[in-house]
Amino acid sequence: MPRSERSPLLLAGLLAAAGVTHFVAPRQYDATIPRALPGAPRTWTYASGAAELALAAGVALPRTRRVAGLATAAFFAGVFPANVKMAVDWRNRPAPLRAAALARLPLQVPLVLWARSVARSGEGRS
Q1: Half-sphere exposure of 37 (CA within 13 A, CB side)
Q2: How confident is the model at residue 2 (pLDDT cuts 50, 70, 90)?
Q3: CA triplet 108, 85, 88: central angle to 5 degrees?
Q4: In this structure, which long-range contacts are made by residues 82-88, counting pairs with CB atoms below 8 Å and at least 24 apart in sequence?
Q5: pTM value?
Q6: Secondary structure of the chain in the HEC alphabet?
Q7: Cβ contacts of 51 within 8 Å, gap of 6 or more
Q8: Tens-digit pLDDT profile for residues 15-70
Q9: Which of 43, 73, 90, 112 places its Cα 20 to 30 Å from the Cα of 106?
Q10: What is the mean pLDDT of residues 103-125?
């Protein structure tokens, strides 16, 4: 399978794995929900997990790949505030955890670009 055909499936796999972890281990995600959001953090955790699962399905299917890829790029940009909150909250944690939290910030850029690339690969396909 050519790399261009694997890319959407790899992105779908990443989204699906992340979505599942929102339900299997929600506590770690609850802590990243910005306090400014209304409602319980667990609701946001479950909603974002469900969104990731839906995006995974959309990216995996050629028929919906273009729209799902664009929605995934928007999703990755939209969760950036949670990553900032995590980096701020973890500033006094041990160095490896602090480094992991900080590494998530620039990681959003290639994730957004990857999702946009997958969206482009879905253009013109049915």
Answers
A1: 18
A2: low
A3: 105
A4: 82/32, 82/33, 82/34, 83/32, 83/108, 85/32, 85/33, 85/34, 86/31, 86/32
A5: 0.86
A6: CCHHHHHHHHHHHHHHHHHHHHHHCHHHHHCCCCCCCCCCHHHHHHHHHHHHHHHHHHHHCCCCHHHHHHHHHHHHHHCHHHHHHHHHHCCCCCHHHHHHHHHHHHHHHHHHHHHHHHHHHHCCCC
A7: 19, 75
A8: 999 999 999 999 989 988 888 889 999 999 999 999 999 999 999 999 999 999 99
A9: 43
A10: 88
Contact 69, 119 (CB under 8 A): yes
Number of Cα atoms under 13 Å in the Cβ half of residue 20: 7
Is there a contact between 19 and 75 (Cβ–Cβ < 8 Å)?
A: no
Question: Could you tell me which of 51, 40, 103 has the C-alpha nearest to residue 75?
Answer: 51
AA letter at 6: R
Contact 53, 65 (CB under 8 A): no
Provide the residue type at 5 as one letter.
Answer: E
Least Cα distance to 7 among 115, 125, 123 occurs for 115
Residue whose token pair is 């972890």: 21
